Amino acid sequence: MTTPDFIRDLRASAGHQLLWLPGVTAVVFDDEGRVLLGRRSDNGRWSLIGGIPEPGEQPAACAVREVEEETAVRCAVERLVLVQALKPVTYDNGDVCQFMDITFRCRAVGGEARVNDDESLEVGWFAVDALPDIKEFGQTRVKQALSDAPAWFEPAGPA
Asked: Which end of the chain is more exposed for a tag (fewer CB within 10 A), N or C?
């Protein structure tokens, strides 16, 4: 994943300490009900498309931008699927981040799926019942995006 300039600027003064950041994930379906995935260049794994909003950028707009930047597919956001605080992650360089993931169900409206930047090795459409090996993170989001249930969130603890 390419580090946005604004995060590099933050790191210049914050060092490696934990940064709390928004993140978006797009579960994009085509007219055949297939899911758009990218095989990441950083770890070689298939995953949903996502990224970090720029300061002031709305999460849904970020999802649309990230999908087009990474895959050349244009999409429209249909609904909010999930909001979840993820566990902190420590990168190889020692940077620590924790993301608030906002996942959207999206519909492809144009473009041809292809590798469109250096974040992916491959991109492609996959039938829901024939997904490549993806982490539980992606499986959960695809399942939730397919349901008609309200947006998922971790319930609050006892009062």
From this structure: C
